[in-house]
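Entry 14. Structure prediction run on the chain below.
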Amino acid sequence: MDASFTGSVFLGMSVDGFIARLDGDLSWLTGETQGGGAPDDGSGGDFGFSEFVAAADALVMGRGTYDVIAPLSAWPYQGRPVHVLSTTLQPGADARITVHGSFAEAVAALNSAGYRRVYVDGGRTVRTFLAAGLIGDLTLTRVPVLIGEGHSPFGAFPADIPLEHVRTKVHSGGVVQSTYSVSR
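Output returned:
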């Protein structure tokens, strides 16, 4: 599928590769199980997440990710168009987002808006954009915990997706963040 934009991924995940427990729980990622608040890179930062979002023209996510983000007291994507893939969420249900009923509809809207860099978030959404060849880079932040089972952004693809390592940084507490470019 052709696109005028490049998709970029920024995910927090367990060492065993999961982005959420099967029930959607993220306490292992947010530090809630250790009594902490938002994850911190050891120097008061957010592992580069704010900078990453600031460099994106728009965001696209699945309904499950939206359901986690929507109730937050502070909308983390202020000033960025947010597109949500959902067959059940009604357009206009939330003025902060644009709802698309299909992947093709979302890609067409992102293309017609002229976006250059789109932050792609959510397990199934990341997998779909990867399979379609619409992801240019991935930043994977591995939290030192094994959760055993959960949701993965990866799975069966029509073919291998070769990656080129760009950089790896080790943060306090054993958090390891690696960035890859997708080789096509």
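The two ends are 13 Å apart (CA to CA).
Filed with the rest of this week's runs.
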